[in-house]
Write a structure and sequence with these properties.
Number of strands: 18
CATH architecture of the largest domain: Alpha-Beta Barrel
Shape: globular
Number of helices: 16
Strand content: 15-25%
CATH topology of the largest domain: TIM Barrel
Bound molecules: zinc ion
Amino acid sequence: MNNGKILIVPKQIISANENREIYYDKAVEVKDGVISAFVDKNKIDFPNYDGKIYNVPDLTLIPGFIQTHVHLCQTLFRGLADDLELLDWLQKRIFPYEMAHSYESLKVSAQLGIHELQTSGTTTILDMGTINHQEAVFESLIESKMRAFSGKCMVDENELLPEFKESTGESLASSRKLAEQFHGAANGKIKYAFAPRFVLSCSGKLLQETFNMLKDFPGALFHSHTSENKDEVEEVRRRYNMENVEYFDSLGVLSDRTVLAHGIHVSDSERETLKKTGTRIAHCPSANLKLGSGIANIPKYLEEGVSVSLGADGPPCNNNLSMFKEMRLAALIQKPIHGSTSMDAETVFHLATIEGAKALHIDDITGSIEPGKKADLVLLDLNKTNQSLLNEDKNLYSNIVYSAGRENVIDVMIEGEWVVRNSGSVIYDERELVERGRKELKKLMERAKV
Ligand SMILES: [Zn+2]
């Protein structure tokens, strides 16, 4: 008999709940996309259970990862912008490529990114889109069943590539139109995140009026970048005679609905401002290292109670989208500076799950395994040669953060629907995606003439 209920019976459950409990004696019941109950493993009547049983005694159940800063529009540009600093990276490669996107190239770029994210265990993202054809990203998110915030990138000033911008009015109007169309789509899984790119590509008017639109779309976010690179903050100082975070604050756009990627070159008083306003920092360690930007003082943010979560940023500045790599680096890069006890595996695992949900204000529905939350779940096989063989609480976090990778991800479920089974996508044919991506990339490179 099958009434739509699924009972997942794993080896163990890492809950990421308030008390960080790990269960060895429980199974998870999923009904209508929601975790309906924990069931005592010893009391399951297997032959007579009134639903579908997924009995996986070798696998470990964790909450799906939440990445709070990615750029699906850039997946197609992976490997095409290596070994450059931020402003050159934008001017010479990323802006020209983004400007050359067609609907088709953007669509396959998003699909390729989602495929990699889901097969490596990410179930929720905060995505920054591009200026044109943004509906292609939303359509890909909806078809893939992803939980996501996204929004077209807003640029009304651009000294790096003057043709790649819109007027302030156009940018605001087209963003509002997309928000009206997609905010709350797919049963509420899709939400809008207004995305003024960064201070150097946005007028003060654009930033303020964008922030004002948040009140018309409950649950929406304000998503931007800050203080990533030394030349960037120097240019902000030259233009506005203020530090980057200080300038955002002077416009009144910092709040607990504001998610800023990076936050590397910030003063103590800026950090205090981020704390006071409830602003969220999305930490992207791979991108920060690859662009040579610097190392954000994450232990200090955490000590002071600033919200920190993790993201892979764009494929051309990483060049991966796997949360496993971000977790590992988020831990490792701090140790030479703050000592080997800083950023322990347990802390980092929670930044990748429940803290991401809190940053996006969706911790009431995802980010941990608790009855009443949506079933955004990942099953890992930790019985591989890349794993510690000691199966105790402490080692589970160590295994996942320091040793595991995409190869350990077996099944992924978003709101009760499988999107990955046996390590393969249920949504996409990987080979077809790669072939179509290659064709679109070839055409895009001809249009971009970089
Ligand atoms: Zn970014």
